[in-house]
Design a protein that fits this description.
Layout: H1 2-10, E1 17-18, E2 24-26, E3 33-35, H2 69-78, H3 81-118, H4 121-126, E4 145-147, E5 168-172, H5 179-188, E6 196-200, H6 211-220, E7 224-225, H7 229-243, H8 262-270, H9 273-280, E8 285-291, E9 295-300, H10 315-320, E10 323-324, E11 331-332, E12 338-339, H11 340-355, E13 367-371, E14 380-381, E15 385-387, E16 397-403, E17 409-415
Parallel strand pairs: 4-8, 5-6, 6-7, 9-13, 13-15
Antiparallel strand pairs: 1-2, 2-3, 5-16, 8-9, 10-11, 10-12, 14-15, 16-17
Helix pairs in contact: 7-8
Length: about 425
């Protein structure tokens, strides 16, 4: 019986049948014998392994690349999603740092170094003196410097909340004949003729629709002003017309040099003697006096050369400067170059550092400049320079800097019509 069973088992078909799953099956009359050629774990599959994201992973030991372990480690790190995110983040930071250094920080450091060198007294000796320090050109019919009546200055201490008749200085940028906008601005600041004093930074006239109306309005309010480059051009032209005895004669306009400026010539002829005389009294530089928080305050149309006394400033440059040469401090009306306010503010900050610990009120030793002329840079409120030309005549804004008791400062602006299309 036992032998019969044994014989029966030996007769079982032992031929291997390989199925698609990699298992070898043996079939018999009563059971199947399976033999595995790989570890069972190789046949286990999770759902995540079926996705395309992991299709590159080897499915068996025989399919895995034969590479050093360190290569496998690096490969696994590089192919990790988190590693790729870190690469993007750090690469972005690196590029941002480079751009910031190349186009922001490095130029500013170079400019700072250039400004310091420009203000070095040794450099002044090397170049033979800064512009304006040794000679002052003389011009006819021009007032170089004038002091403002101290009674117009705001009080040193701030006014009480309900106090009436506090003093205010109202500094107004380039009007350029925009009388309607000027009247709107005065309404906006609630101008009080009894307690407020108007100070204009030049270029009251020309370009706009009612230059002479503006002159009459500011004369009515007994305002102060400085001579701008447009006043200078029109007044010089008027004086030349008078000297040539052709102020009223228009027959030679197309035959001489006066015909090159028809709009200016027309304005010069329309101007009355009283209006022209009043504009001629506007100084190139108006010395306001001491104002709390601003120190010594002056008003000029274009700008000032730092380190040069007010009496020695070149009048033409003071009316027209925009940029300045850092080596010799020679001003220019060009927009290309170092803006004069950068050099001036650096000069004043160095002066403040030198007297900060030796003077009770170091701010009083400094000079703040309020100016117009530069509509390209528009409103520019720096520590020691305040630019108020905001391009009213070209459709920009008309700006006022209102200084109240205690040195409180407030900027007020109104929108303007664009009169540039009417220029000829």
């Amino acid at each position: 019986m036992t032998n019969s069973n044994y014989t029966s088992n030996e007769n079982i078909d032992m031929s291997d049948d390989t199925s698609d799953d990699g298992l070898y099956h043996q079939s018999g009359p009563s059971y199947r014998l399976a033999r595995f050629t790989r570890p069972l774990i190789d046949y286990v599959r999770n759902e995540w392994q079926m996705g395309t994201k992991y299709s590159h992973l080897p499915t068996s030991t025989s399919e895995r690349p034969e590479s050093p372990r360190w290569v496998q480690m690096i490969t696994s790190i590089v192919t990790a999603p988190r590693f790729r995110r870190y690469v993007v983040v750090y690469l972005t930071l690196l590029v941002s740092c480079f751009v910031g250094w190349k186009f922001v920080l490095s130029p500013r450091l170079e400019e700072h170094s250039a400004l310091l060198r420009s203000l070095d007294p040794n450099v002044k000796d090397e170049v033979g003196g800064w512009f304006g320090a040794n000679a002052l050109p003389t011009f006819d019919n021009i007032v170089q410097l004038r002091d403002l009546d101290p009674s117009y200055l705001p009080a040193e201490k701030a006014a009480e909340p309900n106090q009436l008749n506090q003093r205010r200085l109202v500094m107004i940028g380039d009007v350029h004949g925009c009388k309607e906008e000027l009247e709107t601005l005065l309404e906006q600041i609630e101008f009080d003729e009894e307690s407020d004093h108007l100070v204009f930074t030049g270029n009251l006239i020309d370009k706009g629709p009612d230059s002479l109306g503006v002159v009459d309005l500011v004369r009515k309010y007994s305002a102060s002003c400085v001579r701008g480059n447009h006043e200078d051009r029109i007044l010089v032209l008027r004086h030349d017309l008078i000297a040539s005895k052709i102020l009223e004669d228009t027959s030679q306009d197309n035959e001489d040099d006066f015909g090159q400026d028809p709009s200016g010539r027309k304005l010069a002829r329309e101007m009355s003697d009283e209006q022209a005389k009043w504009l001629d009294t506007c100084p190139v530089i108006l010395n306001i006096g001491q104002i709390k928080g601003l120190g010594q305050t002056v008003v000029v149309h274009g700008g000032l050369v730092p380190g040069v006394d007010l009496e020695k400033q070149d009048p033409f440059s003071a009316m027209t400067m925009v940029t300045i040469d850092l080596e010799r401090h020679v001003p220019s009306s060009s927009q290309v170059g170092t803006h004069w306010t950068k050099l001036y503010n650096k000069h004043q900050s160095l002066l403040y550092s030198s007297v900060e610990k030796t003077v009770e009120d170091p701010k009083s030793m400094l000079t703040t400049v309020i100016y117009g002329h530069d509509s390209y840079n528009s409103l520019s409120m720096k520590t020691y320079t305040k630019g108020l030309d905001t391009g009213c005549v070209e459709g920009g804004k008309l700006t006022a800097l209102v200084i109240s008791d205690g040195g409180e400062q407030k900027v007020v602006q109104v929108g303007c019509n664009d009169y540039s299309k009417n220029w000829t």
